[in-house]
Amino acid sequence: VGNGILVHNEKGEFLPREIFKDSTAFQAHLVTDADGHATSTVTLPHNLTTWVVVAKVVTTDTEVGEAQEELLVTKDLIVRPSVPNYLVEGDALTFTAMVHNYSGAEQNIAVDLTGSGFAHAGGERQEITLADGGSETVEYTVTIADEAEAAFDIKAQTADGAYVDEVRQNTPIYANTVEKHQAYFWEAGDGESHTFEYTGVQDTRDRLQLRITPTLADSLYYLCYYICGSEYGTTPELAEQLLAQTAIYAQYDRLNTWYSREALQKSMEDEVIAIQNLYRGDVGWGYFDYDAADTYLSAYAFMTLGLAQKLDAGLPVSESIMANAATLLAAKLSDDTVSLDDKALILYGLAISGHGDLVATQAYAERANEMLSGSVAHLALALRELGDEERGRALLFGLEPRLQYEDTLTYLDDTAASYQHTQTKVYQTSLVLQALSEYAVDEDYVVTMANWLNQSRRSFDWYNVFDNSQGLRGLLAYAVAHDNFGATYNYTVALNGESVAQGKVSQGQISEGQSLVDIPMEKLAAGTNTLTVSLDAAGALYLSGDLMYWTEGIPESSRVSIVRVYRNQERAERQEFNLGDLAIVEIRYDGSDLEGSEYSRVHYQLTDYLPAGFEVVNTALDNISQYESQQVWDVLDDVPDPLKLWTWDHYGLDSIRREFGHGIPAVDQYWKYPKITRVLVRASFKGQFSARPSVLTSENIPSVYAYSTAGTVTIK
To answer: Is the pTM of this model over 0.90?
Structure first.
């Protein structure tokens, strides 16, 4: 390409422009001919813009070069509509389209709006006259229908038909109620079926997203993304990350992971060094290097380094630190202030690191009924490491009376979930599953435990790094024990007798066909639905389903409440704003009814859905002025400190997702209700917009959830 080349993108039959991308091509395997020339053909999307074309080259002698040119794509007549990225049924929207005339002469231009998913409020055609080089904004008002999507077609055409531009924008439409998610997980062989219930109101937006994997291992590599990369460099974070990485490294060839083996090894080396740097030889490990030492954290870090040392990866585990820590922890076995659960972990760490004590481990195995299920699993794994598999297997079978059942799923939950202790029901279940898998226990509940773990993962019940790391290790151990990584077969998945996915598995991985299927509401039956798997050879499929459906109204809240209001910059409540105004979305949370709860801590995910006429003002979205930046910082300046709610925020186009947690009960003066959180937004479109209910869900207490009321906001 040459700098300054002008491409007139008239597109033959004046098809609408509808494909818009920020990057149009990436070709990494061009090879030059003997004269050093290479040619690439690229189909451009429909953007009218200046494309920057960058070429980077390298020779076989590792000489490198780089060149950059620009490619301008434009038209003689241009229409640029400005429509929200999403809408809500019932919205009354006024939006604009800018028309530019570069034809070289004055033009009479008709600008038409057609499409679906909306009703006109008059003015389907706007007629304007533009001088050469001139531009003008036209305006349309529409009411949004109760459909899944709105398609806006805006067409500008000169009176003689010589110049035309048409843009099509498809915009999702949300219902003004609550979108629910129901997670499912099934394992199915040839001819096997599983059922699920669809109880939605048959909204056209309802759907089932179905992911198909031939092995559990194939579905686990995403977890590494959530586990790797310590944010604070604490002992538990580093230890759990290293444990997950060692599990992935040990089964690397079986995992379809995005991590290269070299990058994984370098990450493990960094984790080993970081954990060892936190060690204090006289007392062990604390949360940070300056915190008081903790027996549990010391045992955990020691066990982690022992597993890393055992891995054939040449990791820089210090022999002197391991010997010193082994002596320190062995002495804890005679300390009556140390819990039996901590001692079980110490014994497993000693066994893994080559400092095991079989007699002591057997002695503590006699007291397994006094320990949490995960601690019993630690003892069983220690006994296996020390050669007493018979006693270890007996310990695991002794856990059968503790199993809890939920339909066709099985899990363990010896104690209430607590932030202070890592043995949540996810952690206990996955640790016991790991031990059962390593012992090759072949009982039906082993399969249903694995299925419960997968379903709980898709229900967002894995809420900390401990759960994610141990969950990965438990499921990976199960996959190694039960899955056929070398299987090859063709598969069909049918819903209610109709095929929805077909493909081929080769050597344990999908080589052809569909692995992710989006099934619309039209194919879902009211009530019971049946999924059936057909295979032409021995094997199995794992099906994970996310059933998404809209409620008929706004559900009742449970145990907590949230209230949403809109404020102007003077902090007065308002439902009406002017275009360009800065506004404040405020949510008030009241959890006082949780006082006296059986739980010690609660973790929340709060999602606030913005009216389509608002956009978040945030530096991460690069849409903020210096003045607005100061307003973001000052958004809570009038709220008393005990009422301020600090959250971890994630900004999207249609919502703000916030995460926070707190102890139960709140015991100090700095935790008062209602807690208040705010976000700064800008009024960007004119109209009357529906405000979908805000949703608060607990990540660890299923009976806790809340919804705000719906509402409307007017922007003039």
So the answer is: no
d(CA 611, CA 687): 10
User: Tokens 């856990």 appear where?
Assistant: 399
Q: pLDDT confidence of 621, banded at 50, 70, 90?
A: low
- State the pLDDT at residue 668: 56
pLDDT tens profile 453-503: 887 765 555 556 677 788 888 988 998 888 877 789 999 999 999 999 999
To which H or E segment does residue 616 belong? strand 614-616
H helices present in 318-357, as ranges: 319-332, 340-352
Q: Is residue 56 pLDDT above 60, yes or no?
A: yes
**pLDDT greater than 50 at residue 519:** yes
- Cα distances (Å, whole numbers) of residue 648 to 411, 445, 562, 682: 30, 38, 18, 21
3-state secondary structure of 408: coil
Alpha helices in 598-697 (DSSP H): 626-633
Contact present, 71 and 50 (Cβ < 8 Å) = yes
Spatial separation of the C-alpha atoms in residues 122 and 559, rounded to whole Å? 47
pLDDT band at 594 (very low <50, low <70, confident <90, very high): confident
Task: Quote the CA–CA distance of 594 and 706 in Å, as a whole number.
Answer: 13
Rounded-to-integer distance, Cα 346 and Cα 466, Å: 17
- 5-34 residue pLDDT tens: 455 555 545 578 999 999 988 988 899 999
Q: What is the pLDDT of residue 464?
A: 65
Mean pLDDT across 306-310:
94
Taking residue 74's Cβ as centre, other Cβ atoms within 10 Å add up to: 14
Q: How far is CA 171 from CA 86, 115, 427, 551, 635, in A?
A: 5, 11, 41, 21, 31
Give the dihedral sign, CA 556/558/559/560.
negative
Sheet strands side by side (includes 5-8): 5-8, 64-74, 50-58
The per-residue pLDDT for 486 is: 77
Q: How far apart are CA 430 and CA 446, in angstroms?
A: 10
Instruction: Write out the E strands in 106-189.
Output: 107-116, 118-120, 125-130, 135-144, 149-158, 164-174, 179-188
Name the residue with tokens 């929200």.
Answer: 84
Query: How far, in Å, are 458, 687, 715 from residue 121 at the CA level?
Result: 43, 12, 17
